[in-house]
Amino acid sequence: MTVRILAGLGLALSLSATALACSAPGTAAVTKAPVIQLAQASPQTAPAASVQLTPAWSRATAPGAKVAGGFFTVANKGGAADRLLSGSAEISNTVEVHEMAIIDGVMRMRALDKGLPIPAGGSVELKPGSYHIMFIDLKRQLKEGESFKGELVFEKAGKVPVEYKVMAVGAKAANEHKH
After folding, report:
1. Which CATH architecture has domain 48-167?
2. Is the pTM of this model over 0.85?
3. 3-state class percentages of the chain: helix first, strand second, coil last, to nearest 5
């Protein structure tokens, strides 16, 4: 028997296979039991597949720091524009999408209440001094070399898991190391 299930993450599950069951000491009987086989669903049912991230990173923080930033490039491989709306992370109570910009000669940072547009077929870089993820009310100090998990929420692609690698204090890129 084969059963097809469409999971919320856009994966089609096909169940079928064989398993062994022991009926008495020294004897074995073969019975049919389900096995999970994964197959990629169509792009319409798997919108998260249209969003791709470069390796995400953050910076180490000082003891007692209450905020940190998250950085990566997001590419939209889909045919429609999308929007990065929000997120969550195991290291903070609040996660917001932020922008830093010079307004009237003054560098200002603000939350993007309507999210960050990601054009169809385009990409947007989140980096220090520009667009970034803001981790607010940190639960602990971030230390160089560790990593932490989070989730990003897109208007169309939905929830996308992400893992951030913690780089040195003051790092400007994911592959920058200080000695």
Report:
1. Sandwich (2.60)
2. no
3. 0, 55, 40
